[in-house]
Amino acid sequence: MSAPPRKILHVDMDAFYASVEQRDDPSLRGRPVVVAWRGARSVVCAASYEARTFGVRSAMPAIRAERLCPQAVFVPPDFTRYKAVSRQVREIFARHTDLIEPLSLDEAYLDVSQTKTGLPTATATAQAIRAAIREETQLTASAGVAPNKFLAKIASDWRKPDGLFVVRPHQVEAFLAPLPVGRLPGVGKVMEAKLQELGIETVAHLRELGAAELELRFGRWGRRLHELSLGIDHNPVEPERPTLQISSEDTFERDLLLDELEPHIHRLAEKTWDGYGRELERDPERVARTIVLKLKTADFRILTRSLTPVERPTSLEQLTRIACDLRARVPLPADTRYRLVGVGLSGFIDREDVPIAQSDLFERDTAG
């Protein structure tokens, strides 16, 4: 006897950062709002729907956003406020289920196959969650309801903003058939181009090619593509994702020499240490072992240097000192300029597994 279909929600706040700004400042309502610092190196964190009509999108260079929409109101991001609202929203989720997988501050998967509230359907649960978000935060969220995670994520985007779309189990194959193959998870621009060379532009075309042919051409990934084309995805909602790294980074207004980075390392180390403190409050038994320095050169080469000291990092001063010292292990010429620096903590393990004495130095140098 097969298990009953799961009931998965993907809830996505609408233009989250920009909507918080418009909520808190009535003068911004109805206007094109771009959440970003001004400057040649800044990127857009979020854009209101009014700004999106001009082509402004998240992750776009702020200077381009300004050209596309000269009348836009630029607002510097305030992540403290955004995180506070995100916590409110997560508390609403938790009234309905403990199976919550946050993807970012503004979106999450929820498994509502069984709920705390006894609401009769996943659709009713999604409606209740959206209504509570509207009432308690004065913001809107869109939701997708489906038998698995990737379908729910596609569905949540279907009627944005402030929409709800449901894909029932018997509708899955028909729903997917006309979609571009690029809507499937893992199909990026390169894979999409390869599939288009084979005449595959839609999920229906992919399905017609068949599992055997796809596996012959793309190996195990080809078989996975065939499963996705049929709407098959057994990935569970994972509420407890262990922390792998906590980091802070910054892109400069102008490229800097290695010797000029120290004040920026100090500032970023403080932000990282604050984040680590919050992580320890959440899970005091998981501790970091490794300090990481990340650099990006003016020509976009990425380097990381990391140190695992004999004793795990226990102070901001230790984090800052080691991060600064790691600059000495950068093998590039002294006149190399850098556009970005980051400071991180990684190598999380259970506190009881921390070795009594161990000293390892790890290095990684990657082009990116």
Give an account of the 3D structure:
- The chain is of the alpha+beta class and 368 residues long.
- The protein folds into 3 domains: 14-146, 3-Layer(aba) Sandwich (MutS, DNA mismatch repair protein, domain I); 177-229, DNA polymerase, domain 1, CATH 1.10.150.20; 245-366, Dna Ligase, domain 1.
- The chain contains 13 helices and 15 strands.
- It has helices at 16-24, 49-52, 62-68, 79-94, 122-137, 149-156, 172-176, 189-197, 203-209, 211-218, 220-229, 262-282, 316-325; strands at 8-13, 33-35, 46-47, 73-75, 100-104, 107-111, 141-146, 164-166, 245-257, 286-287, 290-297, 302-308, 337-346, 349-350, 360-366.
- The strands form 4 sheets. A 5-stranded mixed sheet has the order 5-6-1-7-8. It has a 5-stranded antiparallel sheet with strand order 9-13-11-12-15, covered by helices on one side.
- Strand 7, helix 6 (149-156) and strand 8 (164-166) form a beta-alpha-beta unit.
- Helix 4 (79-94) runs antiparallel to helix 5 (122-137).
- It is globular and about 60 Å long.
- The protein starts with 7 loop residues before the first strand and ends with a strand.
- Residues 8-188 form the UmuC domain.
- This is DNA polymerase IV.
Proportion of residues in β-strands: 15-25%
Mean pLDDT: 89
Strand order of the largest sheet: 5-6-1-7-8
State the assembly state of the protein chains. single chain
- Uncertain runs: 357-368
The general outline is globular
The CATH architecture name of the largest domain reads 3-Layer(aba) Sandwich
Count of DSSP helices? 13
In the CATH hierarchy, the third-tier topology of the largest domain is known as: MutS, DNA mismatch repair protein, domain I
Strand-pairing-aware structural class: alpha+beta
* Count of individual domains: 3
Return Rg in Å.
23 Å
Name of the level-1 CATH class of the largest domain:
Alpha Beta
Query: How many angstroms does the end-to-end distance come to?
Result: 49 Å
Query: For the report, how would you describe the main beta sheet?
Result: 5 strands, mixed
The number of E-state strands comes to: 15
Spell out the helices and strands N to C: EHEEHHEHEEHEHEHHHHHEHEEEHEEE
Helix content: 25-40%
